[in-house]
């Protein structure tokens, strides 16, 4: 192995100045959901409410026709 061409030199007198340079660290990107959990719950509740309304609307004409027949 070859030795490095430079060797470390520390001053024997005076102050030693060291520059601490912060570098940006690249990290793995975080995937965010397109819809939040709360939004998904609200959409599910709205869909269920619409289904209930449709069922009631379908049941209403059947009840009115059977009442007229009597």
Task: Spell out the key features of this protein.
single chain, 70 residues, mainly alpha, rod-shaped, BBIP10, BBSome interacting protein 1
Q: What's a concise summary of this model?
A:
Helices cover 47% and strands 0% of the residues.
Describe the structure.
One of its GO terms (cellular component) is ciliary membrane. Residues 51-60 have a biased composition (Low complexity). Residues 51-70 are annotated as: Disordered. The structure is a single chain. The chain is mostly helical. Helix content is 47%, strand content 0%. The chain has one helix at residues 37-69. The N and C termini lie far apart (107 Å). The model has no long low-confidence stretch (mean pLDDT 80).
Shape: rod-shaped
Helicity range of the residues? 40-55%
Q: What fraction of the residues are assigned to beta strands by DSSP? A: under 5%
Number of strands: 0
Report the radius of gyration as a whole number of Å: 38 Å
What quaternary form is this?
A: single chain
Distance between the termini: 107 Å
Number of helices: 1
Low-confidence residue ranges: none
SS-based class: mainly alpha
Q: Report on the biggest sheet.
A: none
Mean residue pLDDT: 80
Secondary-structure element string: H
